[in-house]
Amino acid sequence: MLAGNRAYQLFLAVIAPLTVLLIWALGSNLGLIRASILPSPQRVLSTLISLCTSGQMAEDLSISMLRVLRGFGLGAVCGIIIGSLMGFSKTANKVLGSLVSILRPVPMLAWVPLFILWLGIGESSKTAVIFIGSFWSVLLNTIHGIQSTDPKLLEVAYILKKSKWETITSVYLPSALPSVFTGLRLGMGSAWTCVVGAEMIAASSGIGYMISYARELAQPAKVFAGIIVIGAIGLLIDQVLLRLQRVLLKWSYVDEK
């Protein structure tokens, strides 16, 4: 029964992508779609295989992933630290809240020209853009997780005369961790988006640069191959973080049968 349910869930997950792929293939084979605008799936697949076998895709992807890890790591650490400060301290929340409200709506790519002026076109500017992209999600979810702690649990901790540190570790932390992990997942997704955007604007390597250069050379199959890899990597990263969350926070999930 469980295996059948998993198979059904898998079917639901792949039916939409398969439908789009089928329509795409039919349109290309019947000549309804111009190859110069949207190449056939077969052409995109052969281009993707060629990029992988030549090593170009692995090289560009490794460069982009290294940039993501640097920027996301800094953004996640700072987001958790500052988010914890704002979550626990009403004063800090009031002082920093207005600044967060002003800066958070600014699109990540709007920071690129400024960071290039400040930091040049090297790795520092790209790391800064990724940092900004991942920082907000982690910050806001950390604040939400701390402030959403059940007041009844805090009352119990007070009645039991728990110390401040014991209250943080035994009440606030377990309550906030699910939101923090959600922020990490969203932050990683934003970081991956930001690195591609930054590489398209100012880079000589990476998968974003590969897509931008293919556009200049009018190679749509290569562009679509890059887009597919970006989507696949984004999905893989999200699933890894989701599985990690389920392993580390088993107590926060209710088994669905």
From TrEMBL:
> Which domain of life does the UniProt lineage start with?
Bacteria
Q: Where are the transmembrane segments?
A: 7-26, 68-88, 95-121, 127-146, 190-211, 223-242
Q: Does the keyword DNA repair apply?
A: no
Q: Which Pfam families match?
A: BPD_transp_1
Domain named ABC transmembrane type-1: residues: 57-241
InterPro entries reported for this sequence: MetI-like (IPR000515), MetI-like_sf (IPR035906)
Secretion signal span: none
Membrane-related topology note: Multi-pass membrane protein
Which Gene3D superfamilies does the record match to this protein?
Answer: MetI-like (1.10.3720.10)
What subcellular compartments does it reside in? Cell membrane
Q: What is its main location?
A: membrane
Sorted alphabetically, which keywords does the UniProt record give?
Answer: Cell membrane, Membrane, Transmembrane, Transmembrane helix, Transport
Q: Which family does it belong to?
A: Belongs to the binding-protein-dependent transport system permease family.
The protein's name is: ABC transporter permease
Instruction: Supply the source organism for this entry.
Output: Hydrogenoanaerobacterium saccharovorans
